[in-house]
Write a structure and sequence with these properties.
The structure is a homodimer. In chain A, α1 crosses α3, α2 packs across α3 and α8 packs across α9. The first copy, chain A, is α/β, with parallel strands linked by helices and about 350 residues long. Helices cover about 35% and strands about 25% of the residues of chain A. Chain A folds into three domains: about 70 residues, Arc Repressor Mutant, subunit A, CATH 1.10.10; about 120 residues, ATPase, nucleotide binding domain (Nucleotidyltransferase, domain 5); about 130 residues, Nucleotidyltransferase, domain 5, CATH 3.30.420. Chains A and B meet through β13, α8 and α9 of A and β13, α8 and α9 of B.
């Protein structure tokens, strides 16, 4: 009961911003006494602070607002991608406190070695932040099932049980990048986020929630069929989107036109199938948007125009930080949804 | 309060099957007196019946079970498709009481004329059933927004505000067929239903609910890109799935092989994007399954095998009835979710 009430109070503060104890009592339906005790526990745990100077005996004074604290508890967002390792620390208020990215070629790397490097990068960031880390989440460039990275063809990794010596959520890079866009991006709540990295993935966000599919493998836009008889793809099939618009193809391309057309074709199929509210291009597609926009729009319009208005096309402002931000945001949501483990159980001071 | 309690009681009976009043009281948390009154109202409305002979003064006797009644209230499922009109009447227990299908070429037909014919077909079925119709839903071969059929290219209809002179829900044929499969089919709760008619559509069911997309246009499998430079499609694009595997292409095809391969290519893109629990082929694809199975499986395996196990592929048993059953099922769920309008408000007899 205490655990769910703590979550109720912290959830309101997280959702609505600073609130007085009286407002919290009204919003949660809890008595003022109960609310004050719960707020006391959250203050003591460093999850919230109260605004304004408080003198002894004045706790709960009207006008004093309770808000999330950025000073004690924070979330660790991590990423192993094909050509970089990245780490961020985001405090409970959503402010990025540390951000480190190391460019390194992880193709054909040994998972143990790469994860040890990532851990070192994370530990340095944590030490410098001086914050207490509530949890960590890791983005990887491949599908994940039950915490196991099934395969990351560009890394050459298969069936990797990721262990960083800390409690960890592991998820596909495109999924976490889409959540990063949801929580730290444009504010849209219905969109298809397209992640352009060495591989191409996508995350569909529907009414503020990530659509994962029956087995958690949804969003593999990079392997949607573009030209069935096209060049071979690393996945074993032919003519997948990634062959034409993956980062390696983009670097080798004599023309961005062809990449944009291929992206438009795959997105046309995606729009027909999932009808996203809008399309948001992220990762390397964002800086290339000036060159990609026209061919993508032209193909979307040609293929969809007879049936419907194509959804709007935009870019993410988050660059390659989208996935680590989504990872950290996931941890923040874990804390807000269940803050009890971060609080002590003794009574608040009278 | 009474309305939501009626829904609570009827919902438990609909979900769990026959229940005693005591069990209903326990499941709903309502007092036995309240439950008995609500059951009385539902009996009077003809929505439920009590099993076993009851003598005066014995209402609520333990052992007597309350179950849905098939004898008074029923749902009307309707369909306008390119080459047929169809009607069914399904009672509250889910039993099909009337089913009529008339083959007629509706290409280029006048909407008013066709809808009048459908209404006539429905009225004859209703008259013969002797049941009281709680509501109607209509399946149409095109996308629907706010009750308006946007366009049905095979019919040549555009922006048709459908009016049958009765309260009516209008929805896309593939959506309702997927719901038909959910409620009257294999029992699966996660699947992509593929509707093979003159046009090809699909309905994605996720955890027992239809996925509609941001604007209600999801599931347009027929226009997923198969060969970007292929023959022109009625939608204005080129090389859509429908060009290779729509009913007209199937009839003209020298080989089912090519249609199956095209279907496999579009389904491979769909699996990568939405990761359905399984794929269920319906409509004309069901009887053709023996010829389609191998090419579809081969293409799915070739395109997905490097990344994941392809989902299982099966057929619907509902044939061309899927959409009218889904339409009727939708109405039944409306009654169960909100039975108050079908009951009187006076007290049950003491």
């Amino acid at each position: 009961m205490r655990a769910s009430n703590l979550a109720l109070v912290l959830g309101e503060i997280h959702r609505r911003g600073p609130l007085t104890r009286a407002a919290l009592s009204e919003l949660t339906g809890l008595t003022k006494t109960t609310c004050s005790k719960l707020v006391g526990d959250l203050v003591e745990a460093g999850l919230v602070v109260e605004s304004g100077a408080l003198r002894d005996g004045e706790r709960g004074r009207p006008g004093v607002e309770v808000r999330l604290s950025g000073d004690r508890v924070a979330a660790l967002g991590l990423e192993v991608n094909v050509d970089y390792l990245a780490v961020c620390i985001v405090d409970l208020t959503g402010r990025v406190r540390q951000r480190r990215q190391v460019h390194v070629d992880n193709r054909g790397s040994r998972p143990g070695r790469t994860l040890a490097d990532l851990r070192e990068l994370a530990e340095a960031a944590v030490a410098e932040s001086g914050l207490s880390i509530a949890g960590a989440a890791l983005a990887v460039p491949g599908p994940v099932h039950d915490g196991v990275l099934q395969h990351a063809p560009h890394l050459g990794w298969h069936d990797v049980h990721v262990d960083l010596g800390m409690p960890l959520t592991v998820d596909n890079e495109a999924n976490l990048a889409a959540l990063g866009e949801l929580w730290f991006g444009s504010g849209a709540r219905d969109f298809l986020y397209v992640s352009g990295e060495i591989g191409i993935g996508a995350g569909l966000v529907v009414d503020g929630a990530l659509f994962r599919g029956a087995y958690g493998f949804a969003g593999e836009l990079g392997h949607v069929v573009v030209y069935p008889d096209g060049p071979g793809c690393r996945c074993g099939a032919r003519g997948c989107l990634e062959v034409y618009a993956g980062q390696e193809a983009l670097q080798a391309a004599s023309s961005m036109e062809r990449a944009g057309e291929a992206l438009g074709l795959a997105l046309a199929s995606a729009v027909h199938l999932v009808d996203p509210g809008r399309i948001i291009l992220g990762g390397v597609f964002a800086p290339l948007f000036p060159q990609l926009e026209k061919p993508v729009e032209r193909v979307l319009s040609a293929r969809l125009g007879g049936m419907r208005t194509p959804p709007s096309l935009g870019v993410s402002e988050l660059g390659s930080d989208a996935a680590i931000l989504g990872a950290a945001g996931h941890v923040i949501r874990q804390v807000v949804t269940d803050p009890a483990p971060y609080t002590s159980t003794r009574s608040a001071p009278a």
